[in-house]
Structures are given as structure tokens and as C-alpha cells.
Amino acid sequence: MKRQMKWAAASLICSLIIQCMPAAADQKTQEAFDAYLDRIYAQWISENPFQIHFYLEHPENYGIELSSYTLMDYSEYDEAAIEAYEKQQEEDLKELRSFDKTQLTRQQQILYDKLMEQIDLNEKYADMFDFSSLIGGSNGIVNSLANNFQNYLFIEKKDVEEYLKFLQDIPNYIDYAIEYTNEYAEYDLVPSKYMLQVNSEAIDELVGKNTNVFIEGFEKKLDEAAFLSDEERANFKAKNKELVEQIVNPAFAKLKQQLSQWQETFDEWEGFAEYAEGEDYYNYLIETYAGVSMDAEELFDYMYDKLDDCEERFSELLEDDEIYEGYMNSEYGFEKRTPSEILDALRVYTKENFAPIADPGYQVEELPNALRSDGVLAYYLTPQEDHDDVNQICLNPDALGTDLGVLYETLAHEGYPGHLYFFNYVKQQGWHPINFFVSNIGFEEGWAEYAARLSLDSWGLDPDMMEVIFLDQEFSYLLMGLSDIGINYGGWTVDDVYDLWETYFYLDSAEDVRDVYDACMAEPGTILSYSIGYYQICDLEEEVKEMLGESFDHNEFVTELLSVGGASFDITRSYIMEWANEKLHG
């Protein structure tokens, strides 16, 4: 059944921490393993000085020293640095393998498995060519810089001081990106025309003549900083404006000029599918973003089956004239409420239907006009490990529009019982913060979609209409995921993408799917986090339900799912099935 195209964009994401119950084991081994994790955590988090603040307000309490104010490690491709890094990796692996896993607590065992899986993944693709670009698409270099500085928390005076130091490294970062891109271009590996164009337009939007987010966003945060005196606030504003005008603006002007030059001199990028190394690279992206061990062809078949099921059920529901009319007019029966009113209702639902948490509450912020990217509905900002009472959900009103179904589902995905609930629930189980680095985004997004689907039943509306809302979202995710595989693994053209989408939608020409093609080409694999996780969780639920029969309890299943949360689906399934077998056989 063909229908008018209704877009459902993927919301951004954040990383989560998981919970498990301890098992009786050797305390000395457990303490040694925790000390190992402490060292690895400090080592990993220190690799990028700028990222430290997004994880920790006081890194010194974790033995981490902020010794430089750079946006990345520019020695990443230095031969001596690579040699030292590889040697350290070998030593870390040797120490990890020295632990007797059976003597660890259940939480530690899962972390052990996650670390080993990550090591195995790195070894599996050790010789893989890296096709990634520092320019990027809609979430590329310009928007990433603007968003990262926009989201830099000001909790104490020292945060403002450090922010201004990092700000001064933007020219170095841009110079590095230009040099990196030029070096890759020597091998005919270039950003797409789409990447170049969206970044050029973003510069005009973010640091143009009429607006500058590095000034406006900074001053807004300072005005809200109660820990500053009026004199300090004024001095910081003056210093920031001086740095932006003298350092930041010229750096972006240089980048824009370079982007323009590349648009004229670079050939159009046709993707890495044509390269012999492209197959390995895409399968690496699958394991990274989707959290499954299927290869691209297996995953394509899996998703196509899900798409057929989704379309069959969707068409069946839309045979009801009332449902069809409500869907096409975006009239689902939701009461018009503010985002805060919806989140408050979702908090009550979550409290009544999910395991309890010490709820820190939330803050809702609208993104500045210049940062309202078309592909971003909203995102949840993961709190710092040592300052977790700031739980912020950022909304893009322009992308959310007036569709109440999209708004309700998005807030459940990002807030309760989605990312915000999940992060706080699992953190409160006392997991080591290194889990933040080894959790899997496919599971995280899968949980957020799974939980959002459950929450739709809480509004007392027509259940068929609620199912239509959710199927519409999943249908778009599946089509986007199939397009991503086709483009980046199969070498599809725009016409090939059109052939897929035209099967389900009324389209005029291949240009109607140009945005899909460009987005998948610019951010390969990213959409898989949203296309796969929900179905993997549903498959696991069905497997356990069939295994346990009448003894299956959905709340127990969800609790166990949370207890292994953030892991790849191979690891998640192994621990869930272990629980199910124990429950079945006593």
C-alpha cells in the first residue's frame, strides 16, 4: 500500500550505564579488577582533554589531570605516538586476560565481556582502512564545534575559565581538519559535495553577520550562572567576545574559503563501497552502531523481513477509515500539552510501571535557531559522572513541528522511560564509570524506542492509532537503514534508493530521496542504531516468552534487560538467557 511520505527523523542520543547484582566471588580479585578499571578509565578519558569536562566536573578526584586545553589529540597519527599507544594496548590486554572472570562480581563479569569484545573487534578490523571524514555532514565539523561549546556546562567559575582556553584551540582544530582532508584527497578520498555545502551554510548560520552562537550562547549561560558576580560576568563576556572576533571568526572564515575551494576542485565522492576495503569498513560500522554480529547482507535481509512485517501491519490498520483519516491529518487524539506537562505525565507513568529511581528531575531547553538542524528532533545530554543532577533535554521546535504524535514519542524516547530514565536507573546501581565507554549505542537507542513504544499505551487513546504512530516511526527507520546498507555497502545510486522508497510512497522523481542519499553517504552506519535495536529487543523478548511460557513476567524481563543494558546484543542475549534458564530450571 502506497501512502504520502511522512518523515520521522532520528533523535540524538546519549550513552548509558548499566546495573547488575553482585555474585559471591573473590574480594581481592574484585578489588584488583576495580583498580584496573580505574586506570583504564583515567587513561581513556585523558586521551582527549576537551571531552573530560563532559564526563567529569572534578577529574582530579579520579586521578585525572587536565594538563592541556586542546580539542583533540593532534599526535594521533604520529608514528611514535602510535607505537606507544599500541604498546600500552598490549600491556592492558595482558593484564585484563590475567583476571579470573569467575572470581568477579556479575557487574564486573559483564564489563570484562564488554572490554574483551571491544578488543576482539579492534583485532578483527586491525588492518581496516578508515574512511571516516573530519568534515562530516549535517552533524559535521561546524555544527559539532558549535554544539559542543553550546553544551559545555558552567557549574563553577573554573568551568568558564577552561571554556575560554578551549575556545582558543578552534583554529588549530580547523587547521588540522583541513590538513587531514587534503592528505586524504591525494588518495581520491574526499568529502561529498553535500558535506561541503552543509558545512558552508552552517558557518553562515552560526557565525554570520546577524548571529554568532559563540557569543549569544555563551552570554546566555553566563546570565544564568548564579555563582558569578556582576563584575566577573561582565569581564568574561568581554573576554569571550574578543576571542570570538579575533580568533574564532577568522578560523571559520578560513574554513569556509577552503570549503568553497574544495567544492570547485574535488570530484564528487561516490562512497567507499567501490573500494575493496569498503566491505570491512561497513561491517565494522554495523558492529559499532547496531551492536549485532550480522554482516551487511545478513542485516539487509533481516531488516527487509521486518519492513515487510511492518508494512503488512501498517496497511491492515489503515484500512480503518477513521484510523487512516486521523493518521493522515496527524490527529491522533492527544491532548495539546507543553513538553514539560508531557514529561511530568511520563514521569508518573514510569514511576508506576518501571523499577524505581531516585528521580533527579529534568530541564527542557530549546535549541537556538542557528543550531536547529533538520535531522535533529531532540537529544538528551548525559550528565557528568560526578554531577548527575543536571538532566537536560534539548528540543528542536522547528523539526518537531505541530505533530503531537511525534512530540509525545520523542519526549518518551529522550526522557521517561527512555534515555533519561535509563541513564539514571543504571547509574544508581553503582557501575564503574568506564561502562560509559563500552556501552553500545544500538542497545541504547533500541531501549529508548522500546520504552517509548510501551509508553504510548499509557495515554488512554485508541490502541490501533497508537500502534500506527509507532509503526510510522519504525517504518522510516527501517527504510533509512536499508538505504544506508544499499548505499554504503552495495554502492546504490540515487535511482536505486528511489526504487526502494517508491515501492511504499508516492514520489515524483529520484530527487525526492536525494536527502536520504546525501545523509546516508555523509553519516554512514549512524541510522543503524535506530533501525536495529528495537527489533533485537523484541526478538529477545519473544524468545524468552516462548521459553518460559506462563512463568514469563514482562516486568522481570525488563529489569533483567536493564541489568545488562548498554551491551551489544550478543552479550545481552547471553546474560538474559542465563537468567531465563535459571528461572526455568530453578
From TrEMBL:
Keywords of this entry: Signal
Signal keyword on record: yes
Signal peptide region: 1-25
Presence of keyword Signal: yes
Short name of one Pfam family: DUF885
InterPro entries attached to this UniProt entry: DUF885
PANTHER family: DUF885 DOMAIN-CONTAINING PROTEIN, GLR0591 PROTEIN
Protein name (database record): DUF885 domain-containing protein
